[in-house]
Specification:
With about 290 residues, the protein is mainly α. It has 11 helices and no strands. The longest helix has about 35 residues. The radius of gyration is 21 Å and the shape is globular.
Amino acid sequence: PAMIFWLGGRQIGFRTALFTDISGVTNEYSKWLIAEPRPFYVSDAFTPLKVSNGFGMPSGNAQGIATLMVTISLYAQRKWLWILAAVMIFFTGLARVFYGVHSPSQVLFGWLIGIAIALVLFKIAEPFLGWFGQRSFAFQLGFVFLLALLTTLLGLVIDYVLLQNFVIPDTWVERYNEIAVATDEEDAFSLFNGNDSYAIGAYMFGLGIAGVLLLRDLIPEIETRIGKAQNVTIGLGLYYGAGQITGIAVAPLRGTLAFWPYLMIVWALNPLLIYTITPLVAARIMAMIKSEKN
């Protein structure tokens, strides 16, 4: 979605990012609610090429690519894009089964949910944005904060209330560790973590703020090909540079009370970096180059 935004602009790019991220949150919480294991946790018939953590139903990759490609195709309305979307959706799901990390049913449900989310959000997006765009700046910020808060609380309720008595079978852990050793994987077995809800809520808050700024035309639209190329170059540089800095800064905070607040700030800044700071910097550089030429 970030690359689509940098190259395609806000009409397709940001809506694609928003729809895909909503689909991602839905997928994560659905996995916690359904609590169905990945097939290789419970059956020797599935021997994965690599191990994956978490629950299996529905497949996150299958759902994510379905939402992503259907959203792009709906907005672009190009026949070749629909063909490409069908191919990518099918082979992404097939790969998850081939890798042995999902069953066919988990992939199928991922496809159905991902496509449904794209269709529903596409249908309601413009009427909602028309209404939301007429509200005051304070209302928009408050609305975004409330939705992010509810997203966080929903995850905490699922984890600490509905899954409170969930007991992880020893056979799942043993099977995972067996495959992890065979494939040289170092990640420890993990199904869910309620603290992830804080990161999810923080990210959605940052994404919502970015959306408000774009909706109010406070972020420049980069339209030229050179500008879009600069968008990608600057965006990648800022993204990976910020990743290096935050990675170094987080090391001394592990195991302290400041760890999760720090991560929430990082997750909230992530979409702002992609969807607001990058085009602002690109527009500024283009203005400087134009001034020098004049």
